Amino acid sequence: MGQTVIEKIFSAHSKDEVKPGNIIWLDLDVRSARDFAGASVVMNLEKYYQNEENCEDKDKTVFTFDCVVPANNLGYAENQQTIRVFAREEGIRLFDSEWGIGSHILIEEGYSIPGSTVVGTDSHLNIMGCIGAFGQGMGDQDIAFGMKAGKTWFEVPPTMKVTIEGDLKAPCSAKDLTLAVIRKLTSKGALGKAIEFEGKAIDNLSLAGRITLSSMVTEMGGIVGFVPPNDEVISYCKKRARSDFTPYYAEEDAKYIEEVIVDISDLKPLIAKPFKPDNVVEVESLEKDNIHVESAFIGSCTNGRYEDMKIAVDMLKGKQVAENTVMKIVPATRTVLGDMIKNGDIQILFNARTVVSNPGCAGCASGQIGMTGKGEVQVSTGNRNFKGKQGSGLTYLCSPETVTASAIAGKIISPENL
Amino acid sequence: MKKPIILKGKAIVLRNDTNEPIDDIDTDMIFHNKYLHITDINEMGQYAFDNLDGWKDFAKKTEKGAILILGANFGSGSSRQQAVDCFTALGVQALIAKSYGAIYKRNAINAGMPLLLAAIIDNISDIVTGDEIEVNLETGLIKNITKKKDYQAMGMSKVQMDIYLAGNLFDYAKGM
Ligand code: SF4
Description:
The complex is a heterodimer. By secondary structure, chain A is an alpha/beta fold. Chain A has helices spanning 5-12, 38-48, 74-90, 102-108, 140-149, 174-185, 200-203, 207-215, 231-240, 284-287, 306-316, 334-342, 345-351, 400-409; strands at residues 23-27, 30-34, 61-64, 93-95, 117-120, 134-137, 151-155, 159-165, 194-198, 224-226, 258-263, 270-272, 280-282, 295-298, 326-329, 355-356, 377-380, 394-398. In chain B, strands 4-3-2-1-5-6-7 form a seven-stranded mixed β-sheet, with helices on one face. The two termini of chain B are 20 Å apart. The interface between A and B is medium-sized, with 20 and 19 residues. The structure holds iron/sulfur cluster.
């Protein structure tokens, strides 16, 4: 019987028999921890492996600071300092506060490559599915063990196939496609399963679009969601990879536990209302309510690539954000910010009266650009809108196009109707 | 000390008034969040199941070496390790359930708590609390010594066995 993508990746990283339901030892190519929970990882390593080598392979071990950068509260400051000192003493690579979101750094810096296995304390590390890699967020004890042992145990999940039918047409973008999938699957549709995405619209997604889709597999309940790497992705990763890699694709006769079709031929811009990412409706259906937007946020690991920034830049050229609205723009990484500076985008965003910040999770993790107050309406390109996640306000999740249109109009509006 | 692969002990069967397995027991019913501040494992036992109707006196009823027979989706909910450790504190030897919450399973395996899957749980109503049972962790064979009847559960995987024999996840990695 043929293997699915996750079964092939696992088979290449384990001596145990890989089939759904089996618990196997899995070799880890990358073990990472971020400023959230990273300090606990350090404390576990120091507590349990005091007088012995605490890392199986330091070149495969990485710390990143992405949640609150630079630290703006004492808790994060202390935790970051614990990690900083540990990393320096042990000779482990740390991407400090200037770098941006860890999962993106791992891809940009060639740690995560197609077919690799990546773990860390970030619950959205399954974003690695965007390049056909396995990623998984775990608790601090599990990650400390992974750093020490270079492997972890994992229960092989069954795989479901999600086929997208129809083409993705502007002004809809990857985020609308992603929300369409969440609407269909709901927050439990992929519970305990790996997903493989398929279809022409999927093949045509850029790396940024693939990032958007795979980063929200967590919100579908899934373990990880794979997008088969195309030539663009493979050559992007080849240029950066720290070692050789093999992209894996499902075999013809691979066995799926479930197959779901999502038809996007008539897709309209979508939005997830508070407080659940699967509370999805068409943006247009909210227009009659005249929902005033106080805060508009573009960024996060879901929509923080240059392509996402560029959407806002192009829409804001020669325009300004509505008078009673604040627009916050946060690139995912230093590289994205660098491109924005080089291309003159910052000037346009400045003229449009937006706040542009240094890279990181920012609005998604109550980080450097702040939170929302009670009753404050925020449109955001992030991936979660749970109560209290970004303050006490009301967060709506949508595409960069919808966020920008709403920021210009000062109310929730579809980009088609701006 | 070498850990045994065959465990013998008194069964404690979690069933409701109509003798059906209690499904979906979540971590708040096992170890309520009002005790989350407790970090000393010796303190945890007394609170096991103290938020589960009908079982609030579990800590008094159980005995060292007990083997728990549970329903489906045991330990769903939050990621609290205490929901496993409270059983260790009481000397519970093993858990047998139809299925477990994913994080609970991870926590139990990491802590070296033997945990078996038994699809037939609904049909083993002839094991009652107090029966003397024997469990083979490797093969998954459950023997009811009192009633002289056998049942087949799933044996533990190699990984689970590795961690159980080492003590816990951290001990497993010692000296690697
Ligand atoms: S942007 Fe949000 S979801 Fe993404 S890694 Fe940061 S905190 Fe997590």
